[in-house]
Amino acid sequence: MRILHILNHTNRLNGHVHAAVDLACAQAQLGHDVCIASGGGDFDPLLHKNNVATAMVDHQRKPVNLLKSSFALRKHVHAWQPDIVHAHMMTSAVLAWPICRLSGTPLITTVHNEFEKSAILMGLGNRVIAVSEAVRASMLRRGIPSSKLCVVLNGTIGSVRSEGRSRTPVDLPSPSILFVGGLHPRKGLPDLFEAFRLAHEQHPEARLVIVGEGPFQTNYMEMVAKMECASAVAFLGAKEDPFPWMAAADIFVLPSHADPAPLVLSEAREAGCAVIGSKVDGIPQLLEYGAAGILVPPHDPPALAAVLCELLGEPARMQEWKDKSQVHLDRLTISRVAHETLDIYGSALAAGSKNAAVAA
Length: 360
Hints:
Elements: E1 2-6, H1 15-29, E2 33-38, H2 44-49, E3 52-56, H3 63-80, E4 84-87, H4 90-103, E5 107-111, E6 127-130, H5 133-141, E7 149-151, E8 176-180, H6 189-202, E9 207-211, H7 217-225, E10 233-237, H8 243-248, E11 251-254, H9 264-270, E12 274-278, H10 283-286, E13 294-296, H11 301-313, H12 315-324, H13 334-359
Parallel strand pairs: 1-2, 1-4, 2-3, 4-5, 5-6, 6-7, 8-9, 8-11, 9-10, 11-12, 12-13
């Protein structure tokens, strides 16, 4: 099968990019011809190493630029002749839709950022992949027909991005609490800071480590600097591969207010952390609805602090949740994601063949 993925860029530190790169490389490993059309980025050498071709299609949202991008994509589709076009972001879907309509190529879209209003445009696809059951339910409420919607839960274990990674834990003080992600309001970091402040009063030996960067980094550092526990909090910035920090941490916390299906949870579970996540969007599904991680209400620092205190105060309880993080871990592999996605491609191709036969 010839598969063309389209996304805005291939730079690191963006979840949808990681998911698309993982999928494209896994499909190439299964023997398919795969290409990514994007604005390019850090992952291009990795893609080429794994037999994934790349094409330049600039996604900057300027009228003249988008017109040029449309012509570039149309030319590439005509020359490369994909069996399937798979768009991963709104601009990609809008660029691809008329071209796929004219060429008769099935368009598959994946809803990575369901919280954005523009996600409704992903309904342009012949098949719309939701990255969790929660995203599927949200897209149904927004009017996407159930006949189009499919769920492929995010998973990243075994991806080419992890090949050759260091699994040696970095040196972190114990007990350590870790957050990895973008530093912006959707991730709920002020809730974590307040919860840690409350927990630190009872467990002054605890440390909080923040790995990531974002537009609110300065605000968050200033916020923490005013707390009595400020010396126990470390902002380490973004890491190309945060796994060694996960392998060293005792507790991983994701206090998000909105998160369709964060890849970081599969990595934290693989690293063997005791995992705490807010009960929103795709987080419960990624934590086996509480069997593989502790779920807490969003926007509730006291509830989060109570769970932190429970784990910090009882080493046996902490170890119990570290062990539970391994429950059904095989469901979060990129191999499973690749095969389920290929099945969706097959259904779209079969539907297209039936429509063509009827029209004839």
